[in-house]
Amino acid sequence: MGNTGGMRAGRLLSLLLLLQNRGRLTAAQLAAELEVSERTVYRDVESLGAAGIPIYADRGTGGGYRLLDGYRTRLTGLTGAEADSLFLAGLPEAAAELGLGAEMAAAHLKLLAALPEGLRERAERVRSRFHLDTTRWFGTTEPAPHLAPLATAVWEQHTLDLTYRRNDGQVVDRTIDPLGLVLKSGAWYFIARVHSSRPGTPYSSTGPRTFRAARIAHLADTGRVFERPAGFDLDTTWAASASQFQAGMRNLRTRVRLTPRGLALVRELSAPLTAADLPPPGTPADPDGRTTAVLHMESVYHAMVEFASYGPDIEVVEPTELRDRLGAYLRAAAERYGAPPGEPGENAPPGNPA
Questions:
Q1: What is the pLDDT of residues 178-202, one digit of tens each?
Q2: Which residues does the UniProt record annotate as the domain HTH deoR-type (predicted)?
């Protein structure tokens, strides 16, 4: 019952702040903003009026509810959860995933109500003109069902027992101290200190490690509070982890020859680390008009798939394995498209060696 009363009190305040910030609103508009029925809005308006709030109903076309001109409430203090949500003010989807969506909406209203008239109008103008979308094109936000309790453990510094699915598919159990969360292109990662299973060694010697939140199979809060490592900085640790990850994903060195169009395609479509050693723009081409370049790839298979998309505008010089596999792949594709639709070619294209 106490929680229900607190929710209703928060809704009444939100209704009041909506009218204060936006002026006249209809019952339907208020219901949509508060995610309740119009009948609930009618009851809430009656409750506010009974409490002495000068709220009036304008009848007829274009009518709605409004506050007496000049009336302003000073009930704008932020709760702890609302203050916590402010760092996600431009990321409503992320706030919702962390369980802070309602708090962020309430904090936004309270901040607007506390601003002077001119600044409030400016803030609304910025909100209506700028939007931040962190999800990459043709991608979706990766589901992470254990994200909210993980975020709570990060905030409260609670040690967790995890069952985690590694990148190679192996499922392992870990005891960790979660130190921070990172949202990267629609996927949540967390950095944690891993407890060691060796006697006399409390933590893994590798230091804080990076995990992917979507790979948590099970999470249990131990209730034990840990001390954060002295000098730990989330931004610095994430930058180092991301750099190490990207370098590890580009450990195959290839030498290729590119036409001018192929050179442009690589600059436009390849990952920055793949094209890191391309000759700078303006470098003279070879006598045949092509350019010799070094490209860094994740594996022979990934290089074969990416280079195949460049068609005749790229030629692999080395490694020999990649040249042979790419040649076989493209010959099989040409044979398939040389046959009538639906009839298999003589040779099947090579698959993923993994």
A1: 999 888 877 889 999 999 888 777 8
A2: 8-66
Q: Where are the alpha helices (DSSP H) in the chain?
A: 2-22, 27-34, 38-50, 80-85, 92-97, 101-114, 117-129, 147-156, 234-248, 260-269, 300-308, 320-338
Q: Kindly state the greatest CA–CA separation across the chain.
A: 88
Q: So what's the pLDDT on residue 112?
A: 58
Q: Which sign does the torsion angle of CA 326, 331, 337, 340 carry?
A: negative
Model-level pTM? 0.51
Question: Per-residue pLDDT tens for 120-160?
Answer: 566 566 555 655 566 666 666 678 889 889 988 998 899 99
Residue-wise pLDDT tens digits, 252-269: 899 999 999 999 999 998
Identify which of 324, 296, 253 has the alpha carbon closest to the alpha carbon of residue 315: 324
Domains of the chain, CATH where assigned: 2-129 (1.10.10.10), 147-243 (2.30.30), 252-338 (no CATH)
Count of residues for the chain? 354
CA atoms within 13 A on the CB side of 89: 15
Nearest to 107 by CA among 122, 134, 87, 128: 87
Phi and psi at 224, nearest 5°, equal: -85, 135
Tokens for 344, please give them. 């298999």
Plot region of 81 (φ>0 → left; ψ -120 to 50 → alpha; else → beta): alpha
Q: Which of 180-184, 248-252, 325-329 is modeled with the greatest confidence?
A: 325-329
Q: How far apart are CA 103 and CA 94, in angstroms?
A: 12
Alpha carbon 22 to chain centroid distance? 31
Tokens of 329: 């792949």
